[in-house]
């Protein structure tokens, strides 16, 4: 008997697409975060985040197949990620997580990870 992955327990691909879409709805109009996404269209960023989160939570390994090891801190190093950027990222992600209506245990697990990840991305305390 195999244990169900978090990915499957929360609804799989569709749930992660909804999460990422709701998150980037907030980022699109955020004057601090939007400049961190150089593409005109947020589509490529949405796809990368969706694939990363799916893989992290036990879904397909497409992210690593396409991009290699996540190396999150290295990939974010070119951008100024200060406490303000972290807090804005978390605010948009909080709205996105809340929109999913997950079971409390799943919401708590997901939020715990997202919060830890956001704090670990800080690379400057300058404004």
TrEMBL record:
User: What GO annotations for molecular function exist for this entry?
Assistant: heme binding; metal ion binding; oxygen binding; oxygen carrier activity
Asked if the Swiss-Prot or TrEMBL record annotates the protein with the keyword Transmembrane helix, the reply is no
* Keywords, in A-Z order: Heme, Iron, Metal-binding, Transport
Entries under Pfam families matching the protein = Bac_globin
PANTHER family per the UniProt record, alphabetical: TWO-ON-TWO HEMOGLOBIN-3
Q: Which family does it belong to?
A: Belongs to the truncated hemoglobin family. Group II subfamily.
Please identify the protein, giving its name as recorded. Hemoglobin
């Amino acid at each position: 008997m195999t244990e169900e992955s978090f990915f499957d327990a929360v609804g799989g691909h569709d749930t992660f697409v909804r999460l990422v879409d709701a998150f980037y709805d907030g980022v699109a109009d955020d004057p601090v975060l939007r400049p961190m996404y150089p593409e005109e269209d947020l589509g490529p960023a949405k796809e990368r985040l969706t694939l990363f989160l799916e893989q992290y939570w036990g879904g397909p390994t497409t992210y690593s197949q396409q991009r290699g090891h996540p190396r999150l801190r290295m990939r974010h190093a070119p951008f100024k990620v200060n406490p303000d950027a972290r807090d804005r990222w978390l605010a948009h992600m909080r709205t996105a997580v809340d929109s999913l209506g997950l079971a409390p245990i799943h919401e708590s697990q997901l939020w715990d990870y997202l919060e830890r990840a956001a704090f670990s991305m800080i690379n400057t305390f300058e404004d």
